[in-house]
Amino acid sequence: MEQQVTYRGQPVGVVQIEEQAQGMCWSVQCSPVSQMVLRLYGLGAQAEPLRIGVLEPEGNVLTLRRVLSWQTLRDAGYERIRLPDSYVLDDGTPGCLDRVDDHTSKVLTGDVRIDALAASGQVKCVRQDKGWTVYAPFVSGREMPMAFALTACAVRDGQAVLCLPDRDGKPPFQERNRVLE
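Above: the chain sequence. Below: its structure as tokens.
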């Protein structure tokens, strides 16, 4: 499947989306439209913006090839039958990715995967004095919703516990209301 990629409302390239055994693959080619670092996001009506990756210069075009696992897509609120319906480039400046601003009230930690898990009720985020503590069920033989962050977790009483300190009063993975890589 091929879809258009836009930057500030203007078409700048295309994304090829291909289903693979391990997940979905996005292959992007765009015109160089900015000297800023450009991130590709997929936007869907019922989910948070899906951060796909950072484009890199290759000759006279910007490219990206990225495979996201089925679990990563589920954690972010997407599925095989419900993928993003539009694709945009974001350089982190105001007005570039307006839909992220629409969702800032749902942002807790600023990490798309952790916030999606919290929104779906799979993990619990508790505000502490200087950050967040994220609790996820940890039971032998069962899938762990935060497997991507397990090495940073402590395990206590059947819970994986991840402590995320604030950075200068902002959620740990945010800077100026934009999600970081």
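Confidence is low (pLDDT under 50) at residues 99-105, 175-181.
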